[in-house]
Amino acid sequence: MKFIVLADLHLPDRTDTVKEQVLNWIVDVVKQEQPDYLIGAGDLTACGTIPASERLVQKLKSTGVPFLLTPGNAELRSPEVANQVAQILKSIDEKETPFRMIDTSGGWLMYPEQLQDLPDGAILVTHSPLGCLSQKDRETFSPALEKCDLLITGHLHKDEVNGKCHIVRGLDPDKAIGGVPALVIFEQKANEWIRRDVSYTAADPGSWTPEERQDFLDHLGLSAMYETMDVITFATEQKVKCLEIRFQLFDPAALEELNRAIQKWRATGGKHLSYHMPDIGWREGSVSGVTNAVKAAEQVIAIGCDRVTLHVPHFSVGMAKDANIYQSVLKETAKVVDFLVSSGVCVGIENMHMTPGEKPDDDRRYGYTTAECLRWINDLRAMVSKPERVGYHFDIGHARNNAPYSSQEPVSSWLAAMGPDFNGMHLHQIRHNPDGSMENHTPLLQLYQPLISLASLFLAWHNGTIRHSPMFLEIRGGTGPESLLALRRLIGKN
């Protein structure tokens, strides 16, 4: 017998993300391999919605291979339609197969009776690995584990094998750890189960031509967050073509020194110079931040920058619903933006993210969704003389560290929704802190790490979903250069 395991695709309702490419690839592999069964280990949809579930099932049915699916925690994210989704995902009767689909979608063993009366040589499939379950649940699993041939799980987005227990990496290019998205084929030979991982190599820049890899690397640069002169010196020595400096009130002498350093950088091939602007927003009944924004814009021209990064306005969602506040901030922002674009500078509007203590209500900051960012960009464009010079600046960490919106609009959805408007990007990793919060702007030293895997970015870059734009490694602590060298080595190798 041969069967294919699918896990953790997190398919959204949108049909234009790179996850759709992965799903189409799955169909092709299944048709080529002709397994006896298709097995889903949970989280095949992003939020347990009806459109994504129906599309998933339709494409799986197109393979002509019978399938069995067990839910994951993602299938519970839309409780109002959870019962309908469960019905959509139902397929053949597992009792006619050696498989037992064990429900751990809530993070615990939902129905212990599923582990009773197992057939000889049973293959257990569930979403949560044993290590993620309680001691009591693990004890309940123990007799079944001794009797079964295999226990297959997902959820952790990484590969792990421990005897008959197999964790599979999964298919989500936003989250696959240790490699590109992959499905797993199990085939029984001489009473032994052989595991074969099949990777979606299109998400690996190693599959690109040397010219394509070089184009990506030519757009990969650095943000000098706080070590401005040191980073410029490094960028000059390493012939980095994309460089961003952050707003500060440079005095005339410092500005002159900065200009000299930038000219040296330009002489070595420096091409895209960006400037991270200060925020404009609303505070204590009036527009705030305009004075610094004007000074920053003047420095942009004096330094000879090609583009700027500007956050969405610093006000709340509730304030944005107040027409007077919204229009007041828009008007003052447009004055600064028009000065820049009329001087030949491009402006990229950057998305923001949820912070500890914020709730997803009208008191949170504006700019955490694609709709909010697009609205602001389009409203700015309508008020400036060169609207084509206003675009979107994507921060990958802000999109990922943005729960609960990161489930509704993961990285791949941002790439699809905003990709045609890209004119710049911030790249960095994020990490979990001991208190459970996540920290942005940490080193990006591997291609497929937790919590950010770059497979989605590679796919969107290569297939034209996003405009090829300058990318700046925005990393704190002076470790940006280390990340740049690591990524150059990993992407540039043959």
List keywords for this structure.
8-stranded parallel barrel, alpha/beta, 5-stranded mixed sheet, 16 helices, 494 residues, 20% strand
- Main sheet summary: 8 strands, parallel, barrel
What is the general shape?
A: elongated
Structural class: alpha/beta
Major sheet: arrangement of strands? 11-12-13-16-17-18-19-22
| Helix count from the secondary structure assignment | 16
Strand content: 15-25%
Low-confidence stretches: none
**Number of β-strand runs:** 22
Mean pLDDT, rounded to whole units?
96
Describe this structure in words.
The chain is an alpha/beta fold and 494 residues long. It is built from 16 helices and 22 strands. The protein has helices spanning 18-33, 50-61, 82-89, 135-147, 210-218, 228-237, 252-267, 290-303, 317-320, 323-341, 370-381, 396-400, 405-408, 411-418, 455-463, 480-492; strands spanning 2-6, 37-40, 67-69, 99-102, 123-126, 150-153, 160-162, 165-167, 182-189, 192-199, 220-224, 242-246, 272-276, 281-283, 286-288, 307-311, 346-350, 390-395, 422-427, 429-432, 438-442, 471-473. It has an 8-stranded parallel barrel, surrounded by 6 helices. A hairpin with a 2-residue loop joins β9 (182-189) and β10 (192-199). α2 (50-61) runs parallel beside α3 (82-89). The chain is elongated and about 80 Å long. The model has no long low-confidence stretch (mean pLDDT 96).
